[in-house]
C-alpha cells in the first residue's frame, strides 16, 4: 500500500481494492494500516478511520484468509489495544469490535492473542451502542475454545450477562447470543459452582427480566422475548440440586410464568402429562414444550423444601391464589383436560399439609371436593398421583374422614385401584389404608359394603375383596422406590383392620369372622412376610399373620389360600438364624419378628392340626421341635 495512497482518500481507495482481492492477504502492505489509522485519528479524520475499520471488519467476516493476515500485520493487535485503552470513540470502538470478533472466529491463534482482552470486551457491554457487537465478539472468542470458555467461567460471565438482561441493557437482537454465552459458561463451571450463590443470583436475574419482583417498579418496560429467556434458564431448571437450592419465592415467580405460558391445546397438554409420567421416554425437544416441563418440575422441587413450608402457609397471598385455582378447577364441569400446572398446585398443597391443623383447614376450605373430582375424571397418571397423595395427607386426621368419605374419596380410591399406573394404584391403596387406621367405622364399611363399579371382575365385590384382588393382580414395577406399592398398602390395611377388630369388645367378633370369610384375605400378608427387601413391611405382615392365627377362624382363613405355606414356614424359620449385625434397633425388630413367627407356628399347630395338608403339617411339627427352646423362653403372644 504505497502508490496513490498518501492522501487519506487514496489510502482508503487502495485498502478497499486490496481487501476485495483475497490474494493480497499473503502479500506485504497491510502492516502499515495500524500506523496510518493512528495518524488519521490523531488528525481528527474520524470518518476515514471509520470507513477503513468498517471495510477491514467486513473483509474478515467474509474471508477467513484475512484473519491470519490481520494478525501478521498487527491489525488485530491494534484493535485490541484500542478497546483495552478505551481511547476510541463509540463509533470507532464498534468497528474495532467487529474486526476483533470476525478475526477470532474459528481461529485459535487469534483467540490466544485476544484472550487477554476478554475483560475489556465484556466492559463494552455497558455501552448501549456497543452491546450487541461486543456480545458477538466475546462469543466468537470463547465458543468452542477451551481457554476462552475457562476464562469466561472464571469471570462468571453467566452472572454478568444475566445482570445486563435483567437491567434491560441487552436488546432483543442480542438475547440469543447472550443466552449462548451463558450456556457456554455453564458448561465450564464445576458441579459446586453450578449451584452456588452466584448461579442462584444469575437465575434470579433472568427471572427478573420476565417476571420482576413485586417490589420493583420499572417504567418503560421492554417486552423481552420470554421464550428465549426461558430457554436460557433451561440448564438451571434441568439441575435438580440447583432447583432444591432455589429460595421459596422463586416458586411463586415460576408458577406465575407457567400460568402465562402453559398451552391450552388438549393434545399438547396430553403430551406434557405423558412426558411427566414417563420422563425417560420424553421425545419432544421443542423448546417451549421442554421449558414447560422444567417449570413444572422446578415449582414442585422448590415446594418440597423445608424453607418453602416455613415461608408459606394457607393464608399467604400466593397460596390463597393457588387454592383459588384448585377450587375453580371444576367450576365449569370436569370434562376438559386440566392444565398441567394443576400438578404444581396439588404438590405445593401436599407439601404444606404436614400437620393435622393444616389438613383440617384444607378440608374446611372444601379443597377436597375438586381433588376427589380429579380422581374420578382424570386419565393422566401424573396428575392422579399427586392428587391422591394430597388426599392421603388430608385423611390423616380422623375428623376429616367423614367429610372425605361423604365427598366420595373411598369410591374414588376404589376406582383408581384399576388404574394402569402402579404408582397411582399404590396411592389409592394408601388412601384406603389410612381411612381404616384406628377407625372401626370404616373397617366395618370395607368388610360389608359392595363396590358399585361394574368395570371390575368379578362383580359385586366388597371393598376389602376388591383391595385384596387388586393387590394380588399382576402389576408393573414402580418408577421409584419412594412410591407406594399397592401390595404393601393393602397388606397394611388388612393389619390395621385386624388390630381394630381384635382389640375391640367381643361385640365385634361377628364382624371379624365375616372378615375371615373374605376370600384370600391372608394372601397379601403371606407375600409380604416372605419378601426380604423391606424389613419393616415384612415385620408388619408377620404381625398380621400372628393376629389371624390366634383363633381357629383366622387359621382356617389362612389355610384357605393358595400360597406356598410350606415356603412361608421355612422363611419364618430363617429368622432364628438371622443376625442383627450389632444394630440395636434391628435387634429389637428381629426379636419382635421371632416372637410373632412363634405365634404363627403355634397357631398353625394348635388350630390347624386337622385342616393342614400333610406336607405343611410335617413342616410345622419339624420347625416347632427345632424352635422349642425359643418357645419355652417366650410367651405365645403377638408382639406389636
From TrEMBL:
Is the Ligase keyword given for this protein? Answer: no
User: Chief localization class?
Assistant: cytoplasm
Q: Which SMART domains match?
A: ARM
Q: Which domain of life is it from?
A: Eukaryota
* Gene Ontology MF, one: guanyl-nucleotide exchange factor activity
- GO CC terms of this entry: cytosol; endoplasmic reticulum; mitochondrion
> Do the record's keywords include Magnesium?
no
| Keyword terms, alphabetized | Cytoplasm, Endoplasmic reticulum, Mitochondrion
What InterPro entries has UniProt attached to this entry? ARM-like (IPR011989), ARM-type_fold (IPR016024), Armadillo (IPR000225), RAP1GDS1 (IPR040144)
Tell me the compartments it is located in.
Answer: Cytoplasm, Cytosol; Endoplasmic reticulum; Mitochondrion
> What is the protein named?
ARM repeat-containing protein
Organism, as annotated: Lophium mytilinum
Amino acid at each position: 500500500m504505497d502508490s496513490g495512497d498518501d492522501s487519506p482518500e487514496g489510502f482508503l481507495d487502495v485498502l478497499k481494492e486490496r481487501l476485495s482481492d483475497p490474494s493480497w492477504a499473503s502479500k506485504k502492505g497491510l502492516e502499515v494500516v495500524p500506523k496510518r489509522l493512528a495518524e488519521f485519528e490523531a488528525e481528527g479524520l474520524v470518518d476515514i478511520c471509520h470507513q477503513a475499520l468498517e471495510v477491514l471488519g467486513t473483509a474478515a467476516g467474509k474471508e477467513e484468509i484475512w484473519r491470519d493476515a490481520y494478525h501478521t500485520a498487527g491489525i488485530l493487535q491494534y484493535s485490541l489495544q484500542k478497546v483495552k485503552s478505551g481511547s476510541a470513540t463509540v463509533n470507532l470502538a464498534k468497528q474495532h469490535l467487529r474486526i476483533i470478533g470476525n478475526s477470532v472466529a474459528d481461529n485459535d491463534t487469534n483467540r490466544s492473542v485476544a484472550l487477554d482482552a476478554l475483560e475489556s470486551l465484556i466492559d463494552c457491554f455497558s455501552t448501549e451502542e456497543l452491546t450487541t457487537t461486543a456480545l458477538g465478539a466475546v462469543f466468537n472468542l470463547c465458543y468452542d475454545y477451551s481457554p476462552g470458555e475457562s476464562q469466561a467461567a472464571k469471570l462468571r460471565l453467566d452472572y454478568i450477562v444475566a445482570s445486563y438482561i435483567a437491567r434491560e441493557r441487552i436488546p432483543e437482537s442480542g438475547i440469543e447470543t447472550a443466552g449462548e454465552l451463558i450456556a457456554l459458561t455453564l458448561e465450564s463451571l464445576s458441579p459446586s459452582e453450578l449451584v452456588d450463590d452466584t448461579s442462584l443470583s444469575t437465575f434470579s436475574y433472568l427471572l427478573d427480566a420476565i417476571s420482576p419482583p413485586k417490589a420493583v417498579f420499572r417504567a418503560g418496560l421492554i417486552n423481552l422475548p420470554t421464550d428465549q429467556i426461558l430457554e436460557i434458564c433451561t440448564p438451571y431448571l434441568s439441575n435438580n440440586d440447583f432447583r432444591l437450592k432455589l429460595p421459596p419465592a422463586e416458586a411463586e415467580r415460576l408458577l406465575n410464568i407457567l400460568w402465562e405460558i402453559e398451552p391450552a391445546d388438549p393434545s399438547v397438554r396430553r403430551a406434557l402429562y405423558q412426558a411427566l409420567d414417563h420422563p425417560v421416554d420424553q421425545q419432544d425437544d421443542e423448546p417451549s414444550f421442554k421449558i414447560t416441563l422444567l417449570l413444572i418440575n422446578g415449582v414442585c422441587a422448590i415446594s418440597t423444601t423445608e424453607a418453602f413450608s416455613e415461608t408459606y402457609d394457607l393464608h399467604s397471598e400466593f397460596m390463597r391464589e393457588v387454592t383459588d385455582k384448585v377450587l375453580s378447577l371444576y367450576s365449569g364441569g370436569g370434562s376438559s383436560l386440566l392444565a398441567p400446572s394443576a400438578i404444581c398446585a396439588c404438590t405445593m398443597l401436599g407439601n404444606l399439609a404436614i400437620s393435622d391443623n393444616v389438613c383440617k383447614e384444607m378440608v374446611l376450605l372444601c379443597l377436597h371436593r375438586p381433588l376427589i373430582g380429579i380422581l374420578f375424571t382424570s386419565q393422566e397418571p401424573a396428575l392422579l398421583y399427586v392428587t391422591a397423595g394430597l388426599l392421603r395427607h388430608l385423611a390423616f386426621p380422623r375428623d376429616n374422614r367423614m367429610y372425605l368419605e361423604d365427598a366420595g374419596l373411598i369410591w374414588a380410591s376404589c376406582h383408581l385401584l384399576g388404574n394402569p399406573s402402579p404408582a397411582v394404584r399404590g396411592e389409592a391403596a394408601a388412601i384406603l389404608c389410612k381411612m381404616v387406621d384406628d377407625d372401626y367405622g370404616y373397617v366395618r364399611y370395607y368388610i360389608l359394603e359392595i363396590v358399585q363399579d361394574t368395570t371390575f371382575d368379578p362383580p359385586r365385590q366388597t371393598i376389602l375383596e376388591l383391595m385384596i384382588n387388586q393387590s394380588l393382580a399382576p402389576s408393573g414395577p414402580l418408577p421409584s422406590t419412594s412410591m407406594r406399592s399397592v401390595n404393601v398398602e393393602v397388606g397394611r390395611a388388612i393389619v390395621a383392620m385386624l388390630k381394630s377388630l381384635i382389640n375391640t369388645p367381643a361385640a365385634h367378633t361377628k364382624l371379624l369372622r365375616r372378615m375371615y370369610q373374605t376370600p384370600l384375605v391372608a394372601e397379601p400378608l403371606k407375600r409380604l412376610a416372605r419378601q426380604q427387601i423391606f424389613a419393616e413391611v415384612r415385620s408388619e405382615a408377620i404381625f398380621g399373620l400372628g393376629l389371624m392365627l390366634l383363633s381357629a377362624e383366622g387359621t382356617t382363613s389362612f389355610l384357605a389360600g393358595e400360597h406356598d405355606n410350606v415356603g412361608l414356614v421355612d422363611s419364618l424359620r430363617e429368622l432364628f438364624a438371622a443376625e442383627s449385625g450389632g444394630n440395636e434397633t434391628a435387634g429389637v425388630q428381629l426379636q419382635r419378628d421371632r416372637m410373632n413367627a412363634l405365634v404363627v407356628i403355634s397357631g398353625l399347630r394348635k388350630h390347624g392340626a386337622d385342616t393342614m395338608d400333610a406336607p405343611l403339617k410335617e413342616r410345622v411339627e419339624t420347625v416347632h421341635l427345632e424352635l422349642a427352646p425359643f418357645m419355652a423362653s417366650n410367651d405365645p403372644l403377638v408382639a406389636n
